Sequence to fold (172 residues):
Amino acid sequence: MGTVVDFRSGRSAPGAIAGEGLTDVELTWVEKKIEYWIRFGSVAREKVLDQRRRIVSFRPGDVFAFVRWAANDYDTIICRVDIVRAVAEGEAHQTLPFVRPGGDILLTAQGWSKVERVLQTIDGIEQLGIAPGAVSPDHWRHVHNRMTVGQEPRTYTLDLHRAYLLRRRVQP
Fold:
């Protein structure tokens, strides 16, 4: 069955992570074969399935980056990053492999050069002292759109972040 860790209390509890309105992401790690991981995000719960697999869960509204890489004996099969906002029960969403029920996909990039660019963007935001999950969802959409057409995205700044936080405070 595995162990569930509730990160709010820090306690372990046996059982499944279902029916609580959380978004579950199944992670797998088989060295140099399949490597699925979370680059950023506030994990609400974690369930260890076995040595190679676990399920992490996010609360509605949380934003996280899900990185997937897989290879066979000859080459990389998939290299992809998705930045996703976890949705509330009943909220419209897109489906995404290994993410249940799915989420609001803010950014998606495939291929090592694009994935590397997204990871560098995340690093730049962290260097500002901003948690990437707290960044304006519109910025992640902007990065996605600019990369899709082969243009350089604008850099996220402290001023943009302050404006986003102020806008959030006054919106209903």
Remarks:
- The helical segments are 112-127, 137-148, 158-170.
- The chain has three helices and ten strands.
- The radius of gyration is 17 Å.
